[in-house]
Design brief:
8 helices; globular; Hypothetical Protein Ta0175, Chain: A, domain 2; 269 residues; 2 domains; Rossmann fold
Length: 269
Amino acid sequence: MAASQPLTLAEFFAQPRPLKLIVTDMDGTLTQRGKFTAALLSGLERLQAAGWPVIIVTGRSAGWVSGLIHYLPIAGAMAENGGVYFSAPSTAELLSPIPDLVHHRRQLGEVFAQIQHQWPDLQASQDNPWRQTDWTFDIGSRSPQDLKGLQVACQRLGWGFTYSTVQCHIYPLGQSKAAGVQKILPHHFPSLSATEVLTIGDSPNDESLFDPQVFPHSLGVANVLDYWERLAYRPAGVTASPAVEGFLEITERLLGHLPPAPIAATPRD
């Protein structure tokens, strides 16, 4: 775990960075009190006009995320923390190797029931019927100790566990935002490598996007500091402002400091 303080945006962009693709978390990163703002939509439109493709990578359900690609000026949207990818409306790509989704959903429900024995107040999230690869329950006001205990319990049962500002997730081992991005790059952005991706996030389920061995160019919006001591991987730089205002700080830096990216997403055959 890096012990150094994160760079400011000025320090981060003072270094040469061959960036061509933006991969960003959504809740707590693109939102303000849980909502999109007019300023965000304007920022995304400006990035698109300048040639910057943006991929949203979120823990939200596949059913929920399928609409993002239709309504927002983005190149793609990834659901369930790397489980499902949408490059166009109604074109879901399953990124986790799950041969039988019905059996998989049954297994996830059974795992949740088992951990409920130890934490009987857990409440399954209402979006589970629209999920494919993971199972969620509301995070509520869980303490760091509770969250660590839930992680250990899931790992003992052979499953992964993570959480965001919104939900806790039970998922297949090996599934992560970073793994999902690595899978889509060769198919949708074949001319790019992970070293040309700027990753942005705010919470523990974004941790894999901060791994410098995979993505050397990462930023957190200021509210990531709320989780700083819990992160095994930390972003290289942090914005001055939290949430969407922090993302818009990054947008201004990209549009004012770097040339537009001369690439576009390549649809998968």
